[in-house]
Amino acid sequence: MKTKSVVRSFHSRGTRLGGLVVAFLFFCIIPQSLLAQTITQILAKVYVARGGLTKIRAVKSERVSGTISFGSEASGPFVVELKRALKMHMTLSVQSQTMVRVFDGTQGWANNPFAGKVNPEPMTDEDLKNISEEADFDGPLVDYAKKGNKPELVGRDKVEDKDVWRVRLTTKNGDVRYYLFDAGTFLLLKWEGKRRAEGKEFPVESYFRDYRDVEGLKFSFQIDSGSSATDLTQKLVIDKIELNPETPDSEFAKPAAPSDAAPAPPASTP
């Protein structure tokens, strides 16, 4: 597999950090059901498991760093910086070439040196939709009504022999995703959904592992993603999560073009 194909696959599947790094690392849930009391109990346990809604909302910015790998073919470091409201700056480096994605809450820019595009270009409407969801590090299930999302409790299920609660979320755009929470710990174990990129729709599954405490909040430090449980081609391993780092707004402005603006050739097979 060529690095170009691997990274373009990463980009075309919603350019998530594991897609999904940012959209799945930092969120809670408020589901709905006919059994309101049962939902209230589940909600309370989910918030307690993460560290509490007060602490979650007290986070104003985050910095996540680690390594992303695409099977055994290619890997490299990444850094994601996030800030309220809906600001995001991501860098991903493979074979000495760096992809940058930036969103200031309204506009977004990205380059793709693996396709010979060195200079940052405005994002398409499709890319803007994806990155605006990634930049919401509370997640789509916090304040879901204000965001136009509709969650519901589906029932019990299994993830790798563990009992889970399956929650269905319909976004304001009509997209449907599923969140599966451990019935014992109430931490997220799996996410199921689809992503659209370049006019195509891709199935995605993400598994969340290795939860650790960061200043009183729980985060997954490993996310394995792919089109199915037997095709997990992307692994995200987080080295460090910083809460409330000082990040100037200029970090989320349009990136400057490289000094050598000549297009880089496509990467060769690693």
Give a quick summary of the entry.
The protein contains 5 helices and 13 strands.
Task: Report what the structure shows.
There is one protein chain. The chain is α+β, with helices and mostly antiparallel strands and about 270 residues long. It has helices at about 5-10, 20-25, 35-50, 55-60, 125-135, and strands at about 60-70, 75-85, 85-95, 95-105, 110, 115-120, 150-160, 160-170, 175-180, 190-195, 200-215, 215-225, 235-245. A 13-stranded antiparallel beta sheet has the order 6-5-4-3-2-1-13-12-11-10-9-8-7. A hairpin with a 2-residue loop joins strand 7 (about 150-160) and strand 8. The protein is globular, with a radius of gyration of 18 Å. The chain starts with a helix and ends in a 27-residue tail after the last strand.
Keywords:
alpha+beta, about 15% helix, single chain, disordered C terminus, 13-stranded antiparallel beta sheet, about 270 residues
Helix and strand arrangement:
Elements: H1 3-12, H2 20-25, H3 36-50, H4 53-58, E1 61-70, E2 74-83, E3 87-94, E4 97-103, E5 108-112, E6 117-122, H5 125-134, E7 150-159, E8 162-170, E9 176-182, E10 188-197, E11 200-214, E12 217-226, E13 234-243
Antiparallel strand pairs: 1-2, 1-13, 2-3, 3-4, 4-5, 5-6, 7-8, 8-9, 9-10, 10-11, 11-12, 12-13
Main sheet characteristics: 13 strands, antiparallel
SS class: alpha+beta
Total strands:
13
Low-confidence stretches: 13-37, 260-270
